[in-house]
Amino acid sequence: MSSFHIKLFTAFLLACAPTWAQAQRVDRDATKSSAVFKATFKPVIEEARKSTAVVTSNGTQIAMATVVDKNGLLLTKASEVAAAKTLSVRVWDKDFSATIVGVSAPHDLALLKIDSKDLIPAAFIDDKKLVVGQWVVSVGPSDLPLSVGVVSVGRRKIGGQSAFLGVGLADTEEKDGAKITQVMPKSAAEKAGVHVDDLITKVGDKSIASRAELVTAIREFHPGDVVPLTIRRTEKTGEKSEEKTLDLKATLGTIDGAGPPVFNFQQSLLGGPVSKRSSDFPTVFQHDTILRPIDCGGPLVDLDGKVVGLNIARAGRTETYAIPTDVLLPLIKELASGKLAVKISTTSPATNPATQPSTQPSTKPKG
After folding, report:
1. Domain 163-254 has CATH 3.30.930.10
2. CA distance linking residue 95 with residue 54, whole number of Å
3. CB 155: neighbour CB atoms within 10 A?
4. Where along the chain do its domains lie?
């Protein structure tokens, strides 16, 4: 079926759908989420679904993935998978153990490796000419699309809120840490057990010698990230003083709400959950297809079945972000080269590499 016939049939379906004024009800078969409507786009996703995989942990789906190399390399959403104790990838009804070989934190992308030599890489099209209103289809492992919609906003940078610990700081004469002078009520620091006069000496594996270094380290994280803090505390018992080293974990908040980010009630009620990380991307475009957070990481195709982007975040009821292919292609090479290799912890989300301060080389895309 040609793209012209698909467009024509789609227009026919929409034109024939009874309106609320005419029928006082919605014809569910004429909505974009219906199986009848999605079935129209089966030919569009036929090839791309061969390059689509499901990422699981302990048998539960946590993300989608897109095959980028026949020798077992797949792209997925880093913040959904990097903290999992075990990772598996299901391709063509076969399950493979997976490891993370690289992470691009700015784009929230992870490159997975499985033991397979006969995968079918996605047919990426390096096209910068996506236009608002263009039809796009989100691909899953089944013969029906996950969702169908249109490009609603062209490519842009999506900013993010700054992570907030909630402390006042001072330097020490010895430059051996950041001294806590104030702990704000209901802040991430207070909930983690940080006290006034504590000395923060490490954030994760990064040593902290001054106030400025702590501020810089915290800025590398996102609201909601769980951050390990190494604290030096002096406790007095009578005339004796005892110095202790404590390991605490703080769930970072935002400056306008000292605690962890509050989930949007209206979003929860009307549209379901958003992705763990749904903002702070260098380059994305937006489409109005409705995806679950666990469906991010899979390919997005045009009406010719070519991959025009990778779904990276569900940000609202009808807001999904995708990374354009001209941004993805150079990132794939960087990730596969080993230049963005990371150490993966399988014991704690606090060492999730997708939320660690980036020590990676710049992955600024061309164009």
Report:
1. no
2. 9
3. 18
4. 3-40, 45-159+264-355, 163-254
What six digits make up the tokens of 75? 């792209």
Distance in angstroms (rounded) separating the CA atoms of residues 150 and 146: 14
Tens digits of per-residue pLDDT, 14-37?
545 444 434 445 455 556 778 888
- Please tell me the class of the 45-159+264-355 domain: mainly beta
Confidence check: pLDDT of 265 > 80: no
The pTM of the full predicted model, rounded to 2 decimals, is: 0.70
Nearest to 161 by CA among 320, 279, 323, 293: 279
C-alpha closest to that of 308 among 325, 332, 289, 326: 325
Using only C-alpha atoms, the chain has a radius of gyration, in whole angstroms, of: 23
* 150 touches 287 (CB < 8 A): yes
- Check: CB of residue 280 under 8 Å from CB of residue 159: yes
User: Looking at residue 2, what is its pLDDT?
Assistant: 60
- DSSP summary character for residue 275: P
SS3 198: coil
Which one-letter amino acid corresponds to residue 148?
V
Cβ atoms within 10 A of the Cβ of 365, count? 15
Is 364 within 8 Å of 326 (Cβ atoms)?
no
